[in-house]
Amino acid sequence: MKKIKYTHEPMKLKVVDDFLPPPEKLAEKSDQVKVTITLSKASVEFFKAHAKKKRFHYQKMIRRVLDYYVAYYK
Asked: For residue 17, what are the CA distances in angstroms to 4, 23, 24, 43?
């Protein structure tokens, strides 16, 4: 595995407007393609907690976040 070399150069950051809906609006039907992705534990726990409250599937909520992101930047 190649080691990452970090530098102390200034980073150019861009603030992105909050365009995503609340978690309860993330469970709608759509066409799907199966992929494998590794997510942070904190992200998965967040979606699982909100999905449990609303009785949704957390994976469906994650898909919808990605769908909203794509629709916003398309």
From this structure: 30, 17, 20, 20
